[in-house]
Design brief:
By secondary structure, the chain is an alpha/beta fold. About 35% of the residues lie in helices and about 20% in strands. The protein has eight helices and 14 strands. It has helices spanning about 20-30, 45-55, 85-95, 105-115, 115-125, 140-145, 190-200, 205-215, and strands spanning about 1-5, 10, 15, 35-40, 60-65, 75, 80, 85, 100, 130-135, 150-155, 170, 175-180, 180-185. Helix 5 (about 115-125) crosses helix 6 (about 140-145). The longest helix has 13 residues, at about 45-55. Its main location: cytoplasm.
Length: about 220
């Protein structure tokens, strides 16, 4: 069997004319966006799972990477999550992603703030114009690593005092976007955080499609 031009497959018995849908799928898959979500001990599980779930619904290739390895991770409300792979393995397989995302949780955010690998990763992606996102307490990791300086950001209300004067702090918005920097307030805003990331990675139509399917607003 041979592939001829304009979607024609030819074999010795017949000539078949049709649209090569599988080829179209491979092309779209090859162009799909990628996101790295970093999971640290003490992460807020709703923010982690909702974000990963929604991005995957939007067609984004998401890697949930364990900060300290590929073993199961105990989160802030005693829910255990299992990463897809370690952060080291995720970066070895793909050094750069279209988005790097930090879930919140006080302990998890502190661990992200103390990680030199996370700091380097955030800086590299920010300078490359890739999306750098954090929710709840995780924007404090931006402060710790000197990322998103001068940008508009938000966070969980009780961490406001940890966001220094190097940033413009925003209240009253579920999600704040400033260029390639995306921040959000907490577990209850995780759905809008996910939708905004889908919009930025895949377009408004895809974001609206995911929202409709999940009945976030249109109930």
């Amino acid at each position: 069997m041979q592939l001829l031009s304009r979607g024609i497959l030819y074999d010795n018995d017949s000539v078949k004319f049709f649209i090569l849908r599988s080829n179209d799928y491979r092309l779209s898959s090859a162009m799909s966006k990628s996101a790295l979500v970093i999971l640290a001990q003490g992460a807020e599980e709703m923010e982690t799972v909702i974000t990963v779930d929604m991005l995957r619904r939007g067609g984004v290739s998401v890697t949930l990477a364990g900060l300290d390895g590929d073993s199961s991770v105990l989160c802030s409300r005693q829910v255990t999550l299992v990463p897809d792979k370690s952060l080291a393995d995720a970066l070895a397989a793909q050094p750069q992603y279209d988005a790097v995302i930090l879930p919140g949780g006080l302990e998890g955010s502190e661990r992200l703030s103390k990680s030199n690998i996370v700091g380097s990763l955030l800086k590299e992606h920010e300078s490359s114009g890739k999306i750098v996102a954090a929710i709840c307490a995780a924007p404090t990791a931006f402060v710790a690593h000197g990322v998103a300086i001068g940008k508009r950001v938000t966070s969980y209300p009780t961490t406001k005092d940890k966001i220094t004067s190097d940033y413009t702090y925003i209240e009253g918005e579920r999600v704040v976007v400033d260029g390639n920097i995306v921040t959000s307030r907490g577990p209850g805003t995780a759905y809008w955080f996910g939708l905004k990331l889908i919009e930025m990675l895949c377009g408004e139509e895809k974001s609206a499609q995911v929202e409709k399917g999940m009945i976030i607003v249109g109930y």
